[in-house]
Prior knowledge:
By secondary structure, the protein is mainly alpha-helical. The chain folds into 2 domains: 73-221, no CATH class; 226-378, no CATH class.
Amino acid sequence: MPEAPQTTDAPATSAPAPRPPSNVLAAEAPREPAAPYGRPGKPLAKNPFLLGLTAGMGLLTSLALALALVTSYSVIVLVVVAMFLALGLNPAVESLQRRRLARRGAISIVFGGVILFFVLFGLAIVPPVTQEAASFVGAVPGYIQELLANPTLKELDSDYQILTKLGDYITSGGLAQTVAGGLVGAGAVVFNAFFSGVTLLVLTLYFLGSLPSIKDYLFKLVPNSRRERTRALGDEIISGIGGYVAGNLLISVIAGIVTWVVLGVLGVEYALALALVVAVTDLIPLVGATIGAVLVSGVALLQSGTLGIACAIFFLVYQQVENYLIYPRVMKRSVDVAPAVTVIAALFGGALLGIVGALLAIPVAAAIALIIREVVIPRQARL
């Protein structure tokens, strides 16, 4: 039989459906509701009023932040000083830890020594000040009698009625109000100083106890690729700051002990209190030792001219020994800053934050010098 012819089935293609007329589409499409208030305008993204409002809000926010910083200035200073003291006391704590002492025990010993210093300072300063104030109050009637017996004052009183006006001022209650206001102001100053001191001690204890965890947390904020180098630089900076604070405290202690011994040998009254004043003022860079020397020499001069001259000669000689022998030996492993940079940093720090700024300026300058030496200069050398 003859084979039937094979036919190839072509893929079936459906013909496009006929397009309905436009009037039908228009009739079937859902109509948008007509805007009863007209078509909406352009977005306000580039509206000048909105730009001005945004800029104004940004300015107000910046002013509010600046006002908050100014208002909380004293709190910020307390926090910075507490962290500074914690870094300074940390080397002593780590030294005790290396002797197989727990960190809590080491912190207790070091912090107990700090509290003992403040207690001794108060016991040495308060009694002589109280005694001198009581002596002055007891001598006031004698001073008044001497003034009344002075012929010059009598002549001035006859011409200008000075004593009469002074008596009227006293009897009218003006003097009582002034004295009461002064006492209230002095009490407020003493209370604020005591509260600030207690707060500073508490913050220092907190920072000293949690210093390792604070360091670890801050280093975790650095990208992982740079964390190791940042940790090495950070540890070096913290070690330098701690060494500077510890060295400065050691130099002040040496100055206080030497002053106490010399004043005791010379027979100056209140030798311990004056030595503590020298130790505290010696913490201030550049001018602290001079301030302490002037104060102590002035007090000794009031007792005797010979004692004042002897104290001035002693401080003149001791400051040379401290500047050229004690300070370089103590600070040789703490900070590496050129002398000119040290002076400039202390001047800028003192101008910005006073005594606190002068204390912080030198270790901050050392930290900046380390970053420039280890980061900036190598990077510039590779370009």
